[in-house]
Amino acid sequence: MPHDALLSLQTDHLNELQGRYESAMAEHGYDSLLIASGAAPYRYGDDQAWHFQGYGPFLHWTGLAGREHCWLWIRAGHRPVLWLFEPVDFWHANPVLPEEPWQTFIEVRSSASPRAPLLDDPGSLAVIGDPALISNVPGDANPDDLLRDLDETRVRKTAYEIECLAQANRLALAGHAVAREAFLAGESEFGINLAYQQATRQREAEAPYHSIIGLNEHAGTLHYQYYDTQPPGQPRSLLIDAGVRYRGYCSDITRTTAGPEESHFAALIHGLERLHLRLCDMVAPGVDYIEIHRKAHQGVATLLSATGLVSGLDDEAIVDKGITRVFFPHGIGHFLGVQVHDVAGKPTPPPEDAPFLRLTRRLEPGMVVTIEPGFYFIPSLLEPLLEGELGSYLNRELIGRLRGCGGIRIEDNVVVTATGSQNLTRQDPA
């Protein structure tokens, strides 16, 4: 999409947000709302702060990730006012804000102070943000009922948000392609991470989350957080779960690649890929997201049978006896937006058979979800299964050969449309 068209969509997005917020404020008796962008706390006993990315509602309006000590004031029937913290400081630079059409919708002011602005006639005021930063600000701090309704304003994405998410996918996919090439060329986890950052042109501190880059058995740790600087002796597998933040919006993509000598593992990846695409095709208005999760377990059971990893049980029994939860222990996905695990996904608790599921809603147009089935060889889960009464149904020799590959995860970002879905991760590049 041309940049000018995107900027026009942003103005439409802000008009929509103004209406949504005015309705939520009126519902709870507030005349105005002050949103704190937040700030990074300092590490204990240190003069260095943690990296900062911004409070969700502030990003929803502005997309300005990383801007600390800023304040946004929303009032019914008035232009929003944004105070940007721009201190006179020779230690640090103030980022330059490019001139864009949204600044005709939001009045932008500069402030040399990190403190909340003094408001003229705020009326009944709510203040939301990090409690440590708003505790002394006049107004009702983080009212629960209002916060719940504001979370709901982020559930159905505007056209602008969907285009930002699409661009975040395009940028991340370029990084994933280069990461795969680096793996096949024999790079270490650290080297693959550098290649990904170079291709996406985004520092890891600015990315939506810490990239997961696991080679061999490390691919079996779901949120593996370290990077070996030396390549393994035999490159058997790569799992990379990495995204990009674009104008505040996040992509969240996972790909798995088998090493050159791993034909059995490559076949498993192919089987999970086929299941993954069928699950993506299930995304549509009215579909219960929990059912997609359960379909994933049925597919994993079929894959266990077809590959000979489990025998002597039908697919239904493999699910009912909990075997699939050993090989696929996490949920099928979550909401996606200005936060990777976006808000309002669980109005009801997850079912007992899916305790880690982050989304329990029926799908509606405008929602954006991830679909991420997995298939892992995790020692802490496998050993009790192998040693228990169900161990006789498992192919120990084949599991022994494959467990050094760690695991597989494949993840796409999918929009619920009026008639079905749009896969942002698989669409043609713009």
TrEMBL record:
A GO molecular function for this record? metalloexopeptidase activity
Q: Which InterPro entries match?
A: Creatin/AminoP/Spt16_N, Creatinase/aminopeptidase-like, PepQ_N, Pept_M24, Peptidase_M24B_aminopep-P_CS, X-Pro_dipept-like, X_Pro_dipept
User: Might you give the EC number(s) for this enzyme?
Assistant: 3.4.13.9
Q: Per the record's keyword annotation, is Protease included, yes or no?
A: yes
UniProt keyword Hydrolase, yes or no: yes
All residue ranges annotated as the Xaa-Pro dipeptidase N-terminal domain in the record = 11-150
Q: Which part of the chain is the Peptidase M24 domain?
A: 163-418
Q: What class of enzyme is it?
A: hydrolase
Which residues are noted in the entry as Mn(2+) 1-binding? D252, H334, E372, E411
Its BP terms in the Gene Ontology are: proteolysis
What protein family is recorded?
Answer: Belongs to the peptidase M24B family. Bacterial-type prolidase subfamily.
What is the designated name of this protein? Xaa-Pro dipeptidase
Which species is listed as the source? Answer: Marinobacter manganoxydans MnI7-9
